[in-house]
Amino acid sequence: MEMGGETLVVLAAAMWITHHAMVSYLFAVGTVLFAVGRWAQGGEAILAETPVRKQLNMRRLLRQRNIGMVLLLMAAVFMFVRHTYHLGQNIYVFPSSWLVPFTCFVVIEVYTAFRIPYLLKG
Fold it and tell me: Residue 24 and residue 118: Cα distance in Å, rounded?
């Protein structure tokens, strides 16, 4: 379930440039599937494999992954919201406000994807 959701998230993020109406829904479904799969997996199995002296670092990394998941859920909500600002007679619409939490999620995900196996290895 986690891999399917991750695939949908990546597809929807890549298709966002087309401004297709279904991209937001595809992103939201992928995000929910990814979050449910990630949280159902839990971190207890990973912590059980971790050497005792490195469990504090592993807990920090798992906490960072959870923060990243919250940012991804925020990005899914922001994808449906169009921010409109009225400055004088000009109206500015920013449909890309979802990119900030999504980018933070990606940075956290890449960091933890490399650090967790490194800690488990040795």
Answer: 35
The string of pLDDT tens digits covering residues 62-74 is: 999 999 999 999 9
Model pTM score: 0.85
Q: What is the DSSP code string of the chain? A: -HHHHHHHHHHHHHHGGGT-THHHHHHHHHHHHHHHHHHHH-SHHHHHHS-GGGHHHHHHHHHHHHHHHHHHHHHHHHHH--EEEEETTEEEEETTTTHHHHHHHHHHHHHHHHHHHHHHH-
Contact 43, 67 (CB under 8 A): no
CA angle (66, 70, 86) in 5-degree steps = 155
What is the distance between the alpha carbons of residues 9 and 69, in angstroms, rounded to a whole number? 12
Q: How many structural domains compose the chain?
A: 1
For the record, the structure tokens of 31 come out as 């995000």
Residue 9 makes CB contacts below 8 A (sequence gap 6+) with 27, 30, 31, 34, 72
- Token reading at 19: 């401004």
Residue range of the domain that includes 112: 2-121
